[in-house]
Automatic annotation (TrEMBL):
Superkingdom classification of source: Bacteria
Organism: Novosphingobium aerophilum
Source organism phylogeny: Bacteria, Pseudomonadati, Pseudomonadota, Alphaproteobacteria, Sphingomonadales
SMART domains found in the cross-reference section: JmjC
Domain JmjC stretches: 77-240
PROSITE patterns the record matches: JMJC (PS51184)
One of the Pfam families matching this protein, by short name: Cupin_8
Name of the featured protein: Cupin-like domain-containing protein
């Protein structure tokens, strides 16, 4: 959606200069520490793993003005460090920024985050919520893939990740098709969007997206939301628990649990509940805030044993 937020004060400040948009944010920043990722030279802005599968960047915390001073101090260097503030919660860290720069999403109550930094490359990943990404400063390139492309993207571990989500191990700037031959199939489904200040992109739930900050200084503001009740659990937690409890069972037992998951979770048709008297079906009925809370309490008790 080209120019949808072009009238935002943030965008207007960015169009005047990088200095102006940084001043706008510093003047509204609360006196709280900001988390920042710092990557060393030589990685072309790619925040990723090193050869030992540790992160190739370090985390630090500091005042926003000091972080911006570090960006200024490295401007013009041939191979500067990567400086990136990721998923900064706007209401917690700023006054008035959300109020002055806002899209009306009706009754939704989204999380509002800022992503600020020097040129970056963020490996392809997906998120459970829907995402509305608003380019404020610089330029952003999104390369998107449908949810079913997970196998063709060669995902890394789910418990050791750069930012909480499994990421593609493919270097999009230099793909190794000998090591990742199915990536060619993923590329056949890819869609690319390049955003200028004021442009907005909708990334649906579970769509894979590789994100690049292309300018010397880049800002993105995004909204995340779910159209399901907040009392429902996180599917990633269920996946992690299934790995713990089911994946390494003997094949026959694993097959039986697959059938039970189909019965209770993925199919969940009349055969599951019709023979049980109404009012006695417990969590087999559609969940409410009350029954979801009881189920969560039960899980916490059993997992803590």
């Amino acid at each position: 959606m080209r120019g949808l937020v072009a009238d935002w004060p943030l965008v207007q400040a960015a169009r005047r200069s990088d200095h102006e948009v940084r001043r706008y944010l510093v003047e509204r920043a609360h006196e709280v520490p900001f988390a920042v990722s710092i990557g060393g030279p030589g990685h072309d802005g790619r925040l990723f793993y090193d050869d030992a599968m540790d992160m190739n960047f370090r985390m630090a915390r500091g005042r926003l003005a000091d972080i911006f001073a570090g960006i200024d101090a490295n401007a013009g260097r041939a191979d500067p460090p990567t400086i990136y503030l990721a998923s900064i919660d706007v209401p917690t860290h700023f006054r008035d920024v959300d109020r002055e720069n806002r899209i009306d999403l009706g009754s939704r109550e989204p999380l509002v985050s800022l992503w600020i930094g020097t040129p970056t490359r963020i490996a392809a990943h997906n998120d459970f919520p829907d995402n509305l990404a608003c380019c404020v400063a610089g330029r952003r390139r999104f390369t998107l893939f449908p949810p079913d492309q997970y196998a063709n993207l060669y995902l890394g571990p789910i418990d050791n990740t750069p930012a909480g989500r499994a990421v593609s191990m493919v270097d999009f700037h230099a793909p190794d098709f000998a090591a990742h031959p199915r990536f060619a199939d993923a590329l056949a489904t890819a869609q690319v969007a390049e955003l200028e200040p004021g442009d907005v992109l909708f990334v649906p739930s579970m769509w894979w997206h590789h994100v690049e900050g292309l300018a010397p200084f880049n800002i993105l503001l995004n909204y995340w939301w779910r159209d399901t009740p907040r009392y429902l659990g996180q599917p990633q937690d269920a996946l992690n628990h299934a790995i713990l409890a089911i994946r390494d069972l003997p094949p026959r037992e694993r097959m039986l649990w697959r059938q039970l998951f189909d019965h209770y979770v993925f199919d969940h048709g009349p055969a599951v509940t019709d023979h049980i008297p109404a009012g006695g079906r417990g969590v087999l009925d559609p969940l409410t805030a009350e029954t979801a809370g009881r189920l969560r309490s039960f899980l916490l008790r059993t997992l803590s044993r």
